Amino acid sequence: MESKYNYFKRDISWLSFNYRVLLEALDERLPLYERINFISIYSSNLEEFYKIRVADHKAVASGATESDEETVQSARELVEEINHEVNRQLDDRVRIYEEKILPALRKNHIIFYQDRHVEPFHQQFIKDFFREEIFPYLQPVPVSKDKIVSFLRDNRLYLAIRLYLKDEKNATNRKPSYFVMKQPYAKVPRFIELPSHDNHFYIMFTEDIIKANLNLIFPGYDVDSSYCIKISRDADILIDDTASSADLVAQLKKKVKKRKIGDVCRFVYDRAMPEDFLDFLIDAFRIHRDELVPGDKHLNLEDLRHLPNPNKSLHRIEKPQPMKLTILDEKESIFNYVAKKDLLLYYPYHSFEHFTHFLYEAVHNPETREIMVTQYRVAENSAVINTLIAAAQNGKKVTVFVELKARFDEENNLATAEMMQAAGIKIIYSIPGLKVHAKVALVRRRGLNGEKIPSYAYISTGNFNEKTATLYADCGLFTCRKEIVNDLYNLFRTLQGKEDPKFTTLLVARFNLIPELNRLIDREISLADQGKGGRIILKMNALQDPTMINRLYEASEHGVQIDLIVRGICCLIPGQSYSRNIRVTRIVDSFLEHARIWYFGNEGRPKVYMGSPDWMRRNLYRRIEAVTPILDPDLRTSLIEMLNIQLADNQKACLVDENLQNVFKKKTPGTPNVRAQYDFYKWLFGNEE
């Protein structure tokens, strides 16, 4: 039977989120280079989106792969809809960049040349710079329709050049020649600072310096025109994830090397390129028309994060700096503190060093018998991994579950796992057919005389990654409550394939998570039916599973008041008769909102949970995820305060409407400005024990 409910398309919803990222570049309250950075983030996000999501849809549309979720026709229609929306957004990106960012740079005495034409006082400099610093690394390659002689590498910038052999006698009937030339950014920066002049600073794209000197590369030719092009290739790795661990490792080692030569999923070109020039390139490189995406004059604007700032009076944003809790300074044992009271850390507002100090304490505690950790994405040269290696070398038993199928981190995870294994750490690789996305750690202890002493559990919403812990807004809970410790130990035994577990307190995807969520929603529906005010607040990165969305629609129809704080994909449609009691808030600010926190009113005795899963089909049904209830009333109060501050945000919060538009919340006259990330940091600072 057809559902009476409707949903946003997942990928169109994601594009709405990414457009919200782009809108930060319009916020003149932000420092200029922070606005520029959001253009970079928007562009980088879009690149990955094409490599993964659009590439998958194209594979279905072409008949190369089959899908249970879409037909060949629906995949084609979706790709067309995606390209239409992306083209609209790219028009806005051009407008924001050219009409807002470049004038703002000029206002601050930074002249950012946008083509090969420069002031006379710079002409000799760019000619000399080209000869000395760029020319030695250029390798123009002829292009012909008859034979592909050049392989375009993934996400690399190329200059496509059309020129004519000089022939004074037959100038009107000359045939064009075509070349492509890879930009030498491994040897030369993307942006070149030119000599300042008359109290102004000057910056130029490297490709514009090349364009200005093409006559030196092609003597004997008249250069007609040149345009930037690039190709995005399918970066998804199709593996048999039902294979054994050994086979999976072998597959990944082989296939990650082929990622850069995947099928073309996007051919991006300067939209100013003449049609006949584009037609030639399409034929020469065997490009399909549906792979064409018109771009800007300058492509790969994700590089703008490296744009030099020669005007030192232009300040960057002062973000909240990670605070170290005085209760957890180097003289205080985290073990001793957590033995008395649960501890909740908020990253990046709190320092991630507290977690590494927790591991360090476990290494040197004589009563530690075993350390167990999941690894999804870790930083390179990770302090966490180095501490685990030290634990193994110190005679502790260390077990690490390594998820090899973490997209774009496969190679790093493989290398890290092999390094840990060489140090004596027991490595458990991916479970066939599943991803392990839970972010958990367990320190098991036993008294020197065999007496029972507290063991420690850590459950987080984010990865054990020192780098992302300064960029992502996450939460991590330390506890020695026996019911949570025992459940977590059972989870690790499950990862080792040793038993069919029963969980009493933790909610674990594929075991007891969905039944408990349904029970919690049913409770709020019952309260609403009794006139006792059902209430749900759900904070997550993505909401896509139709079954759980239906439960929220149903709760809304019964009068349950629901607030969703969803950063990215949200397939639930607000503003419908069946969702009239649901509001969707999206927050984009200095840090990437990454925590998953769920609140159920429970008639004034709220139940609050935090953990690793979003409400996506993959998270709820095809992954191992861990969620913990917050049992300490003080910590529960702090999480509720965070949710309330985020719902009150009137500076960086948008409401997502029934048309997928990002509608900025209007500030009510007389109410204070609320910027959730910064105000919550102040709240934490003021409530430090």
Automatic annotation (TrEMBL):
Q: Which Gene3D superfamilies match?
A: Endonuclease Chain A (3.30.870.10), Polyphosphate kinase middle domain (3.30.1840.10), Polyphosphate kinase N-terminal domain (1.20.58.310)
Active site residues of this protein: 437
Post-translational note: An intermediate of this reaction is the autophosphorylated ppk in which a phosphate is covalently linked to a histidine residue through a N-P bond.
Span of domain Polyphosphate kinase N-terminal:
7-112
Limits of the Polyphosphate kinase C-terminal domain: 333-499, 506-677
Enzyme Commission (EC) number: 2.7.4.1
**Record GO cellular component, one term:** polyphosphate kinase complex
Show the catalytic activity. [phosphate](n) + ATP = [phosphate](n+1) + ADP
Q: Main role?
A: Catalyzes the reversible transfer of the terminal phosphate of ATP to form a long-chain polyphosphate (polyP).
Question: What name appears for this protein in its UniProt entry?
Answer: Polyphosphate kinase
